[in-house]
Design a protein that fits this description.
CATH superfamily of the largest domain: P-loop containing nucleotide triphosphate hydrolases
InterPro entries: P-loop_NTPase
Strand order of the largest sheet: 2-1-15-14-13-3-12-11-4-8-7
Distance between the termini: 58 Å
Protein name: ATP-binding protein
Keywords: ATP-binding, Nucleotide-binding
Helix content: 25-40%
CATH topology of the largest domain: Rossmann fold
GO molecular function: ATP binding
Shape: globular
Amino acid sequence: MTDLLELTPFSPMYETVRRPLYTETTTSQALYLPVAPPTLGSAGAIIGRELYSGKAFIYCPFSAFGDGLPGGNMIVMGDTGRGKSAFAKTYAARQIRLGRQVVVLDTKEQKEREEGEWAALGRSLTGKSPVKFSPGGGPGASCINPMDPAIAGRRQVELVRTIVELGLGRTLDEFAGSALRIAIRRAHQRAGDLGRIAVLADVAAALRAPEESDATAKQRTRDELLGDGLEASYVLDRLCGSEEDATGDLTGMLDGPTSLGVDLNADMIVFDLTKVPSGGVAMTILVAVIAVFLEEVWLRPLCECGAEPSRHERVVVDAGSGAWELGPNRESGCRRYTQRKRILICEEAWHILGVPQLAALLEKFLKFARGYGLSFVGLVHHLSDIDDSPETQAALKMADTIVIYSQKKAEAEATVERLGLPSWTADHITRLRRGIALWVVGEVIYPAVQHLLVEAEQHLCFSSGSMTDFTSTQPDAA
């Protein structure tokens, strides 16, 4: 390096030469302490960099859990085109490289590709196409049966009741709820006698044909029991249709045997809901059914080595109390049972948070997320898209990480007020550039985290092709 002392003052070389930096620990502290929050450690997915400090920003809810982060759930919000989806896609891909398993509820269609935004990423990572749902069914469409035996009895009753209440637009009274429980039991019995699995149409039929013995057990007449469940049967008819009427809202999606071509061990499973009308009862009910299906089937206990808990040895850790933990699995060579970590990503999460019944279902889901080894990531544009019901507020409180991309002034102020953030963050959020977000991790605020993509990720994360004016590189036709 050129010696500064050898140069003549005011010469061009003197003016532009790189000066040495003399500093002390106290000087560094005085310079960086006010603007640089503590790091989240070096374990996890690389997000990008924290602009104020210049440090790499690394985040993982499973690595940071317990160290100032009480849970692994995240809400991502911001105006359209600010980088929410690009962040979510690269975050999912980078977490998969750390051994995580990801499920995506994809509700954003790319018209030019005639598929959801996550389809390309899912195929690139797993080689598998999305699980598609389409009203009316059709080639390649999938169906989930809410009456599937894979869903435990109690949860099945809760799920069918939720379907009826969402279709009805209000909660069932005790008489209707009791009639529905009886009908579900009878539907299973009658379908079993015919050698098949019950479907929702069997529940509707059982509601319209109650048995005398069931009425007597409830100290009701048969006509009274019929009246208790008649409205619920009409709701199921409207939703599922019939052989004579195939116009039901759920026809081809929830009205038949389960036909999901899902590899539950795949690193990423994408549920393509882009053909289902957004904001309608079909979308709401479908999300509720998928959530329960995932809880009962996908979130089964599984070690990172791929073995179930029963394949691991029990190791006594306290002889006095008999307390034990799951230790090695000699077959796989695993030293200790470690629950496989999973991530559930929901695009346009207002489909869930905007409906009190679904928000209550999600709250219950998230409350036990730590026991499942699960992190929920919900993407929304604005909190104003979501009502202020107690169920929604309870679900929002379960999010211990908040990522906020740029919003307009009114939305930013409403977001800050609703989340209880410092007042200065409202103006700050409006000034954030594309790809830069304010992060709130537990109680710590990171004002400007820049999400960085590598070249290989860009074509998988780009979701604005319809609005982009690309210059053609093809030669003009002769």
